[in-house]
Amino acid sequence: MLSQPARAGKTAPRLLEDLLSYDPRTASTGKNLLADPAPIYDEKAYVPRLPRNSCRHQYILNDLQSETPFLDDRSGQDSKRRVTSICQNCRCHLTVTLDFGGSAWKTAPCPTAERPLHFFVLQSRREPPDPWLSEDVSVTGREQEYWFRCTARRCAATLTVKVSPPRLTSEQINLLTDSHRVRMRYNAAAAADSTRNFEEANGALVLYRLRTYLRDSLDPKSTRSEFPKKNKVFLVSFGRDCDDLLRSLGFADETDLEGEPIWCLPRPPPKVDKFDQSSHRAFLEDVMEELGILTLNRPASERSLIKNFNYQPIPSRKDLERVLGMLDYEKSSSSRRYDPGTPEHPYYASLGAVADFSDNLLLYSYDRQVESDGQNSPYYFECLQDLATGRNSETLQTKVATLASQDQISRKDVAKAYKYFGIDENHLEIVSDDHILGLFQSRIPDIGPAQETEMRDMLRTLARARNSALLSNAASDTIETYGQALSWLGAEVTTPDDFILTLFKMKVDESPSHRETAQKAVQLVADTRKSEGLQTFLMTGEIGESELEPAEAYRILDIPDRTIDDDFIISIYELRLEEAPIREKEFARALKSIAKEKGSRRLAGIVGLDQSSIKSPVGPPLQEWPVGLPNLANTCYLNSVVQLLFSLKPFRDLVLNFERYKMDMTPQNMPEKRVGGAIRTVKEVELSQQFVSALGKVFNDMIYADTRIAKYDTEFARLTLASLSKDLLSRRRSTVSANRPSIMQDVQSEQRLQTLPESDSTRIEQTSSDQPSGSRASSQETLVEISLTESSNRDGSKDIHMTDIDTSQTDRSKVKDTTNDQTMGGQSTVTDMLDGEGSNEHIEHASTESAVNGDDAMAIEPSTTSGHDSKSSLTTNGTTNTANPPPTRAAPKPELPPRPNENGQKNSQISAVEDTAKQQDAAEVTDNIVSKLRTAIKPTGFDSRGEQMDQIRELLFGTQKDVIVRADGKEDTITSIFDNIRLHLPTSLHIYDALDDVFDIQDKELDGGIVQGHTAIESRPPVLGMQVERGGWDDTKKQSYKIENHLQLEDIIYLDRYMDSDDPQLNRMKQQKWQWRKERAALQAERAILVGPHKGMDAPTTIGEAARFITSLEGVAKNENSGAPSIDDDLAPSLQRKAAELEHLLAQTTQNLEKLSRKMNSQFSKYQSAPYRLYALCMHRGNPGFGHYWVYIHDFANGIWRKYNDERVEKVNDPGVEIFQPSKESSPIPTPHYVIYIRDDIKELVVEPVCRDPTQTRRRGEVEMKDA
């Protein structure tokens, strides 16, 4: 969901009143009642909200296009209601649609006892470039649309308001009804045929007859489909001068079988979707309603000539009230419904209320308005004060007194505070909290105690006015609560003790004067957490026993299996004390951590741990809840991936039934075994099958375990981490990515390959017999293939993306394969499993053996490869460019304590797994597992390049089309497969913006030059993975860093805009978006220059501060005895003028950016045929050297999200906050590293997070032994 800044909103009754008063024809002369907040009321300069000559609409129902609720209907989670109306006065069209779908956890739609009315805030808007008038305009492209959402946390209501102009222009109406023109038609008909008796028509008759034609046209039961052009009624009503009008409505002039000219009525196809307003049928329905209104508004003398005129419009106000959920809301006993003849006080509109609200509803409106727009809370308090006095309400006056006692401030206080800091209130939309804090911090060191008190009071006033915790903490400079302590340190509840001490040191290093405050903050944290380590630090100044991570605790005690019972743990603990009594304190710390993690009071008692700190684990029944997985030597990332893949039903079923899909390694089969563009050897297949068998055992235990934690051992972890060396390149070749540097990706991947653990049983010696003949692609073919998609990093190294292509053809535009695949009979496909959409795509691949030097080994010996070897990049002319990568540092490894000698070999294996684990990430391991599984199973067929087709490819892979436009204008079209999309976050981005960076047109390197290219999706995978780049490289510091920019996700995304489409309108919109993105980039660059690199000190502020400083020196300079140099009298005024000029430019640039963003946000709102639901996020907290992984998975069936954090699987209580709007105050910031979306139409067939049967004693795949 797209995050929005705080803004004013309105209750449903207020919105309805604004809808009845909003006239688009006059909107440009004043505030937009629908989109703009009510202006702040100033009695001395009050401007009415309603411009003169605005229409107070009298809307009537267009029943043919409405879906209204019944009187007793209660809006459900998936309900959608719509009311379409037309104004009897100005014929303005209004459509109001309320949709409760699209959110699984928002299950309490308003109204409720706590939320008696919807409170709507504007999300986005779409308006034509200039206001439309009712005269001489086409409806196409002239509609105004506004999107609102209800602010209630558990209400999923989204409201769409569409306002559009009349379908008939004033010229067309004049053509039909002008008495002079009607008389001329009568005279022309009579003169053309004097033998016929013609009856003169009038305006009402003409309108009525045209409406009758349209009614017959829309009625499928009507037998009339045509009429002669010589028809007497037609001639006197329409003659020949209405031909163009009739054709615009869909009438067709033809000839009958006898050659006589006739008019054929429009025959629009039946409406498939009642909510579709873009069809020709919907247009004719609108015109028919307008004709009914126009006829009704004609003089009674004209209407008297119409026989059986029974048009009776139905007012739509009650239907609008029902849809908006505002029937019978609580009203003031002393008020009546708002009368437009008696304007209400502007304060009501400011609060988003109406004048007939009861006192309770008025307080509800005030609370919601302050909640949505806290920045203007002083003004809303003023509104409430005045209304309480005007209404003489004891309830309201009590509320006002209570707020006043809580230091609620007024507008005058706020204005004084802004003036104190030199901030112009006219530009508050561009003044951030960081800017104000910067002004405060820059001045506080240079003032005395008295001025400091005053300055803090002023800052405290602004903190209240802006509802800013940042400013409030800075103003008080005091810490009294646990929350304040965490906030001051920059920590959160989950920040471990050792990192609390790191933050303490950073604070003191930044400012030694903060030591006392920092100590108080740590003391509050220590007291709340009952942390012995923090208490020791505060008493001795030395870092005491900070709490260990459970994984480290198990490692210290050398316990490989984290599922063992307490008795076994106690035995091991006592054994360790016997073996190494000198390490007693270290072992005790480890046991304390394990006791807390397991919730074991027995373990806690052995080491004297406070029993109150132990929380016994409770949870749902075993059969209803997924199991956790043990963390063996930093394998949190592996646990996240296993949980994710287990929840994919086709993937899990294939692993559990592996024997049905297992590859038969016959001499006939092996030469054809190509996965990821590489020939697979017998040894690779054997080891992959060994891995899949181990994975099947883990999956079995995850289903049948009678505990909350499943089991696996270090052998499984080692098999998972052992990487097929060819797959590193293959992984990148099947990644859709923008053509940009991936910075540290190559370096990190190189490190992973160099440190993989291996044993004699897994290492493979390369022999010629392992490599089938003809398996290698020609070097020329491979070189051309790679050059199309490589991109230069800052360090000179190359990334290779999007290269599963065939470039053997001279004309690359003909690369797309159209040959039939070979299919192996007797195997089911994912399409069969899902019984849904899916097909075996015909994709061409290129071999990559020459790119990876034919290395088929599962692991690379660390001693044989240097981490600083130069890296080669290949070009189309076959030359090799060599560049040295930047120096890299291996991830820091904790010092390992000595282990008992008899366990040395086992400890070595665990340590090797641990070391490798520190350099793995979730996306890397996912691709490794997928590659192994594909290598282990038999193919269902082959594409034209011999690449294996299989069930996993159908599940996880899609196809893309890259279009490269050469300098000569020729286009090369390249088709390839992809299994994930790589998203780059140079700054915080919305998910659509990040995807735009991948798919939109951009510069690409080709043959040493720059060409333009763009990418589109040809076929959609059921499971769509997105890898979020989180590694950066600092050229100055020569070190890597983690990118913590926020990726704003949506619960549902629509891929229509990224699909390869023949729709000309969609393709035009894509090109328009590309142009808009360029314009936005230029505006953002201009604004970045004005804002500057430092928070709180933009260019206007900096120059303004300089002007004020120079002004303060002028008195000194004029003193002849001061010896100070003279100052030009015009310098300060000149700087002030420049500051004002830049401030205006910054405001204008910001406004233009917002307008452009609104257009872009709503551009593709009608294209929603390719929906994907957010399913899973692999999260990471830490830095490039270390950190922790966990995964969130969405259970669609039960409507909940779960957090899978190693052994713990917990329900996410508030996904809207924890997942979609995570805290930015924690440090390090948790960020999604791997994001999974699922095709919405088949999600129930693809995912099944809960698959448990702990009551079974014999697991699937295990053989029951019987006596012979």
UniProtKB/TrEMBL annotation:
Listed InterPro entries: Papain-like_cys_pep_sf, Peptidase_C19_UCH, UBP14-like, UCH_repeat_domain, USP, USP_CS
Disordered as annotated region, ranges: 730-925
One Pfam short name: RPT
GO biological-process terms attached to the record: proteasome-mediated ubiquitin-dependent protein catabolic process; protein deubiquitination; regulation of proteasomal protein catabolic process
Chain segments annotated as transmembrane: none
Compositional bias per record (Pro residues), positions renumbered to this chain: 884-900
Segments forming a coiled coil: 1132-1166
Keyword field: Coiled coil, Hydrolase, Protease, Thiol protease, Ubl conjugation pathway
Gene3D superfamilies for this protein: Cysteine proteinases
Comp. bias regions, Basic and acidic residues: 792-819
GO molecular function: cysteine-type deubiquitinase activity; proteasome binding
Domain USP: 627-1240
Compositional bias annotation for Polar residues: 735-782, 820-831, 902-911
Enzyme class: hydrolase
EC number: 3.4.19.12
Reaction catalyzed: Thiol-dependent hydrolysis of ester, thioester, amide, peptide and isopeptide bonds formed by the C-terminal Gly of ubiquitin (a 76-residue protein attached to proteins as an intracellular targeting signal)
Name of protein: ubiquitinyl hydrolase 1
Entry-linked SUPFAM superfamilies: Cysteine proteinases (SSF54001)
